[in-house]
# Entry
Amino acid sequence: MPPRNAKADVATVALERLRPGRDSHSRDKVDGIQRARIVSAMAEVVTEQRLPAATVANVVAGAGVSRRTFYELFADREECFLAAFDHAAGLAAEAVLAAYAQSGAWRDRIRAGLLALLEFLDEEPSLGALCIVHSLGAGPVALERRGRLVDALIVAVDEGRETQGGRRSATTAPLTAEGVVGAVLAVIHARLVQPSSRAMVELLGPLMNMIVLPYQGAAAANKELSRPSPKGHSKPRRPAGDPLKDLDMRLTYRTVRVLIAIAASPGTSNRQVGEAAGIADQGQISKLLQRLTSLGLIENTGAGHSRGEANAWQLTSKGLEVERTIRAEATPSTAG
# Structure
């Protein structure tokens, strides 16, 4: 018996994990990717063309998926919009709460939370506009969810009425927080509707002045105006030039499995890729591999049939970008 090849053993193990029936999450991963693309497309269509243009036809065109895929994941357009809203609100809340939860005085915590919100809006203007602007016209369910977020902000601002002894100030009305939050959101709303070249974080000082004034007086409020606004330092959540966006093919269950299989074990043969992807017909797997080759996602590093030896497939640099994007999007937070 010839000696076993260590690399072949590793490949066998990796592919065995991807075999249909062994990896119960494979289809869920593909659904998560498709869902993420549709949600992202919904946010982009709404921001660029306004809510009435966010039809199923326009959303699926932007996502690069079929109508059938859309209706497998969402009951209708409203459910898709609400998923996009929840996704955007979740990202924003995660950033704001992490900043606000830090120990310190009320004014410092409010400033940290507001800065996190403004940075999020600079990084994700489409998602921010969807939450703050377009949800206003998206129906009662979206309004109710938006209202819950606003209520949470009001509670945080209302903590400014507490005195050093932990008591509520009698000189500031409870309604003040509602008015302050409404004014801050009105300013942000206006900037999102009419975007400019100026970063949102530049609003930090003026907005803090508005928030602090009714609770701690003019002197404290004016100090917020003189504090320098930090420059944006956060990285975008997704690099420019998303490799999936301009991919000239639909990302299917089989395509994802093929790319994952080749990424897990470079040098995989046609037969091994077919087994991992659940494609028994070698003609079908050959056509799919040829298609991926023509797109520049994979390349054959083996001798191939011309010399009677098996193909050996590996991802190109573009293929690696796509595969990394697939893994990044196939996470619980994007799978809904």
User: Anything to note?
Assistant: Residues 85-226 form one domain. Residues 1-25, 233-241, 331-336 have pLDDT under 50 and may be disordered.
